[in-house]
Amino acid sequence: MKCLSFNCRGMASASKKLALRRLFEIEPIDIIMLQETLGSVDLITSSLNSISPGWHYMAMDALGIFGGLAIEYNPKTIRVNASWGGHGFLGLDLFSAELGTNLQNVNIYCPCQ
Fold this sequence. Notes:
By secondary structure, the protein is α+β, with helices and mostly antiparallel strands. The protein has a single domain, classed as Endonuclease/exonuclease/phosphatase (Deoxyribonuclease I, Chain A). Helix content is 21%, strand content 40%. It is built from two helices and seven strands, in the order βαβαβββββ. The termini are far apart.
């Protein structure tokens, strides 16, 4: 199972979408965690759907100093048992058939100020 964590500093940029798309072409990825998405859930979900159609997403709006978060996963390789989150974090309780085990995946973003 391959996991990518990317502080993207916004998902509106075509160059960032292209960079993510190229990563998909180079290496098979099962989970992507994005920090500082700098947008609304609708904007982020739309951007991710254009990059990896058929994947499932969880996202959190950018609010104040918290820049927004997203977790994207491939439902063909990952089964999600539960999802959870709060101010500045998102998480998944998942099962990986490849590893044959349950895992917790946590995506956290909190600015250093």
